[in-house]
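Hey, weird one. I pasted the Molybdenum transport ATP-binding protein ModC sequence into the form twice and got a warning about non-standard characters only the second time. First submission, copied straight from the form history:
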Amino acid sequence: MIEGNIRKIYSGFEFCSGDFKISKESITIVYGDSGSGKTTFLNCIAGVEKDFEGEIHFEGDYSIGYVFQKNSLFPHLNVLKNLEFAVKRCQKIKYSLDEIVKALEIESLLHKRIHKLSGGEVQRVSIARSILSAADILLMDEPLSALHTKAKKEILDLILKINTEFKIPILMVTHSMEELSALCDEVIYMQRGEPLQVMNREEALRNLDPRGPINILRKEDVHSLKLNFIDKSTSDYLIHSNHIILAPDPTLKSNFAHYINCKIVEIIESDENVYLIKLEYLKSRPLYAKVLKSNFDFSIGQDVVALFGPESLMD
């Protein structure tokens, strides 16, 4: 557990976190627009930034690993020697070098020089070095921002693996809703000049995407209209409210693969052309859909089905 309160004043900008707590073993995403203080917050926790008011408390002795946005590996050393440097400097050995090399799948990179690595490979090695420094928590400052789509997906999967297999809590800065939705257990939301807000996964997905709510659907709650039901690595499906179609009966929309039986509980004015519909399914679990006003022919209390195709499910 990490908790505290931080206030940092720059020329023309004041960052004030308010009280915060970061849970053990979770992936906590620090999310917000550029200039909201995300990196400042991370640097204060890491000890990189020492000139601030307030205090930060760590539960027990805490060793921090920091994966920077830009490459911080030693360019004059190859991959293996970068990793060995971390091992030599740490006072307690938590993981063997061989164990981390295998887990992060970097065996083939060990004798390469840093300038020969791709962006994704640099981040794998940087993460490995941070873990080998006996980190009790990993801080990551936009580690995916410079990567192409395939490398991003690989590092996202790797971050989940590290958290799950090694039980290392992760505090990661991003301004990407896609990264947030793929990783978060908790979210620290920052707006310039405002105290941070701490949200759980469901609250963040429902409230932070400017396009509208992202729904979390449990696999066992989703019915299949076709045999090609898509299985995902996550225990939940994520689907944007824009991608749900409402109908009185599932057979009326046979081109959709999946559906959930729902009841309309609230009709909200989203904008001049769209209603945001709050639905309820099973034991009061909420679901949101957006419907054009020109196509709207529903009422509160009406039983409907929410339909969507496999292409709508978010990775």
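That's the output from the first submission. The warning seems to come from a hidden character in my clipboard, not from the data itself. Residues 137 and 169 are 5 Å apart (CA to CA).
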